[in-house]
Amino acid sequence: MKAELINLFQKTYGRLPEVIARAPGRIEFIGNHTDYNGGAVLGAAIDRGVGVALARRDDGKRNFASGQKGGMVRLGAADVARQIGDDAWVNYPLGVLVALPEFGLKAPEGFDYLALSDLPTGAGLSSSAAIELASALVYLAATGQQPARETVVKVGRHAENHFVGVPCGILDQGVSGFGLKDHLVAIDCRGPKFSTVPLPAGAHFWIFNTHTKHALVDGLYATRHRECMEAAQGLGVGLLADVSVDTLRAAEGRLAPVVFKRARHVVEEIARVSQTHAALQARDLAAVGQLLTASHRSSQTLFENSTVELDFLVDQLVRAPRVFGARLTGGGFGGAVMALTAADFSAEDAKKVAEAYAASFGAAPDILHTQTGDGAALL
Ligand code: GLA
Description:
The chain is α+β, with helices and mostly antiparallel strands. It has 2 domains: 2-198, Ribosomal Protein S5, domain 2 (2-Layer Sandwich), CATH 3.30.230.10; 204-370, GHMP kinase, C-terminal domain (Alpha-Beta Plaits, 2-Layer Sandwich), CATH 3.30.70. The chain is 41% helix and 24% strand. The strands form 2 sheets. Strands 1, 2, 3, 4, 5, 6, 7 and 12 form an 8-stranded mixed sheet that branches. The chain has a 4-stranded antiparallel sheet with strand order 9-10-8-11. A hairpin with a 4-residue loop joins strand 6 and strand 7 (193-198). Helix 2 packs across helix 4 (149-164), helix 3 packs across helix 4 and helix 6 (217-234) crosses helix 8. The protein is globular. 51% of the residues are buried. The model has no long low-confidence stretch (mean pLDDT 96). The chain binds alpha-D-galactopyranose (GLA). Alpha-D-galactopyranose (GLA) binds next to helix 5.
């Protein structure tokens, strides 16, 4: 990716970049909608991501180009208004720029900027966190600053929450920032505290991207966020992570039925994350897979953030040989399903699932056999 970035930067701006960084996309392994509820989550950085190259300018102008989108967005130094339409992708690097001073960090003044991605967008693999983290790293390097990795992660989330306007938790940026090849990233979202857990050998990931996206996806995410906060309030706690499965069960009558269902998903999902830690430690991939599928069923029936397309894929996958488990990955309401499989699950096996899907829905999903990768870094 580095050579490609240098090449394209030179073509676009007629000079070489000063700094280059890359940040990976992520899989949400298990821990669905637990992050903003203060719970635990496990994710994996993958071997695809977003690269950003930058060179400073001394006229204060900020130019943004992307290998994926044509044209260039040219902004003045004081021009930090949210972009719309085709230029909306700039809100990620711009949001990071605006977030830096909030953390006592300096933002670079003028620069030429180029982003390049090999990560499918809209697949629930967090291309937004990847571009945020890669942008943060080049801005910081260009201004000679080296804050702790945790701060970089928080800057990315701040951009997403306050500039892009999605009330997401720390999962996406945390995994992109702390990823490690052959490991899962474990986040205790309350701290937040980040650590890594070895992934047992022989575990493979297959992603099936449906390219479907609910038209109201951001609004639905925000609604779930609100319902969870309402549940916590109704239970007299700050966040749902403070409620045990038993306490919640005993409180069923005190919450509106829909709010109770949302809370049950989150509280049981947090318990599933800790069961997954135990199963991983025992290298019991069959047990891990069952927990993943249970997570999906809970999304399907309790949190109601699945779709018929995602359910279809999970149903096909869990029936297929060499599959340990499958679930939607990310916020839901469309996007992708991930399957945890044995090493000998083949492209032929994946194709059968895709063909069955195409026969029902008219178009085949994209298939991605992905591996774990390292977290965001300067190149
Ligand atoms: C999206 C958000 C994350 C997390 C997941 C659901 O990916 O960005 O913060 O809430 O949904 O677990």
